[in-house]
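Hi V.,

Quick status before I head out on leave. The structure for the redesign project is tokenized and pasted below; the design run finished overnight.
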């Protein structure tokens, strides 16, 4: 509970930040600290000023200083958030665990905790905290929307629909809710939704808003079977973002070739670690979630979801802005056994696991297979591979966060096609390099001969096969991936040759991947 003085100071600082008067806010708080160096709330507010100035590192130090003065749970909440953003998963988890011991938060903190829990894969508790936030502030559209998303992640689709309907009744122009509703629509609902969305087309929209609106229209046109209109709006969605991401397929290709050369030239000496996690990797929309859910049915395996730790831990070794940099990986390789950053990954997994083994399905871990197998020689890695045309269309149909550099390839069909070839080259290289640890699994074979394929996968992973592994859809387990709706259905081959709905737009893809896909 804030004192009257703290409330006034808080209001002053927030107003200064809003007006971009950061220097004024800084001077005000420094003056307060000169009068009382133990004023922990001033350190917290100084952290807010530094966040606004883009200096998260300084903000973390200020919040840690505030915590040394008093163990206020707010500070643990904000430290957990900042540590996540900085890629320090271990510290983020520690502060999160401290933060959730307290229950008297307002809606903003509850919403932040829910988002942290989601990022850490604690989906069930994320939903609880999101419900708490909504209970306190049902009128706030972002909190209301986050609750709908939490329902979807946890497989509670009826509740998600109801929440979205309530939200859109209050905020009819809120585009994230329209997008989530479009994902869930029936044929009848899609017709009505298209009419509503068309009314928003002429509004002045930012690029991300244009992306979301066009993608929502595209999904609804798919529902009614109008694939030409769907592709038109998917293309408009992609074109709204493409100029802002500056993706160059040639640079990604060069990086992948350099990575293969580095892998051949600089073989890392395996450790003696007996830790044996299972990794499911692959191009997004290639069946990674499906495979992880199947493996998770084994009573020997804990599903870990998509852990971002490995990329972040390797990235932090060089303070790089983005780990898809060959110099970053060269430095990580040189320093690997002096300061093995993946020790922290094992600690994190062990904290989550309720069995001896865990399964991590972060798809982009395929870049780091050398590091994974050096740290964990007993690990098993399944590389999912799907029909190239289906993969390309599936990625073009997916709305990704423009801030995710890993997905910047997805805004142009030919960029996606080139990315597919780069991924396939990496997967084939690593399978040759580590035949006992790396298996390429074709999606089409998995869904057409599931018993044979899952038996083979389980044997490869040193697991006992169980027929119940194909009953994954009966277990309403949480999923925050793009496949969170599809995995609620039995295994099927409906997605095979889905690209043919868009054959009119696939001439360049057909030329690239060969005549065997001529329809």
């Amino acid at each position: 509970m804030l004192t009257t003085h703290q409330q006034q100071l808080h209001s002053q600082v927030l107003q200064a930040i809003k007006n971009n008067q950061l220097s004024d806010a800084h001077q005000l708080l420094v003056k307060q600290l000169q009068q009382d160096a133990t004023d922990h709330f001033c350190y917290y507010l100084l952290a807010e000023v530094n966040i606004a100035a883009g200096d998260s590192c300084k903000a973390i130090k200020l919040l840690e200083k505030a915590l040394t003065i008093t163990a206020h749970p707010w500070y643990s909440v904000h430290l957990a958030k900042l540590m996540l953003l900085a890629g320090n998963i271990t510290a983020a988890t520690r502060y999160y665990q401290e933060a959730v011991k307290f229950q008297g938060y307002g809606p903003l903190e509850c919403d932040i905790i829910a988002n942290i829990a989601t990022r850490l894969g604690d989906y069930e508790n994320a939903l609880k905290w999101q419900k708490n936030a909504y209970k306190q502030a049902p009128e706030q559209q972002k909190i209301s929307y986050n609750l709908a998303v939490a329902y979807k992640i946890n497989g509670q689709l009826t509740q998600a629909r109801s929440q979205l309907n309530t939200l859109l009744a209050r905020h009819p122009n809120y585009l994230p809710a329209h997008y989530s509703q479009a994902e869930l629509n029936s044929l009848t609902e899609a017709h009505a939704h298209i009419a509503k969305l068309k009314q928003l087309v002429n509004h002045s929209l930012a690029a991300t808003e244009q992306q979301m609106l066009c993608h929502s229209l595209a999904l609804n046109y798919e529902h009614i079977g109008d694939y030409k209109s769907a592709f038109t709006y998917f293309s408009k969605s992609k074109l709204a973002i493409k100029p802002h991401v500056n993706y160059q397929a040639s640079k990604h290709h060069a990086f992948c070739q350099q990575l293969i050369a580095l892998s051949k030239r600089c073989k890392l000496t395996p450790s003696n670690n007996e830790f044996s996690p299972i990794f499911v990797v692959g191009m997004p929309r290639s069946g990674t979630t499906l495979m992880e859910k199947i493996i998770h049915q084994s009573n020997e395996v804990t599903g870990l979801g998509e852990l971002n730790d490995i990329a972040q831990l390797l990235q932090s070794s060089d303070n790089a802005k983005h780990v898809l940099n060959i110099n970053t990986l060269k430095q990580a390789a040189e320093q690997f056994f002096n300061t093995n950053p993946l020790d922290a990954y094992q600690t994190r997994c062990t904290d989550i696991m309720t069995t001896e083994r865990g399964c991590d399905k972060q798809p982009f871990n395929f870049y780091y297979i050398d590091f994974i197998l050096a740290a964990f020689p007993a690990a098993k890695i399944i590389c999912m591979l799907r029909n190239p045309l289906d993969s390309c269309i599936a990625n073009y149909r997916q709305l990704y966060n423009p801030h995710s550099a890993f997905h910047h390839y997805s805004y142009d069909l030919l960029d996606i096609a080139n990315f597919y070839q780069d991924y396939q080259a990496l997967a084939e290289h690593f399978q040759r390099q580590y035949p006992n640890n790396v298996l390429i699994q074709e999606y089409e074979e998995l869904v057409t001969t599931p018993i044979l394929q899952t038996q083979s996968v389980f044997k490869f992973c040193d697991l006992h096969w169980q027929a119940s592994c194909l009953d994954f859809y009966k277990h309403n387990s949480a999923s925050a991936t793009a496949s969170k709706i599809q995995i609620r259905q039995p295994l099927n081959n409906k997605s095979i040759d889905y690209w043919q709905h868009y054959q009119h737009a696939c001439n360049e893809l057909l030329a690239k991947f060969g005549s065997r896909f001529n329809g």
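Above is the designed sequence. The radius of gyration is 24 Å.

G. will cover questions while I'm gone.

Best,
W.
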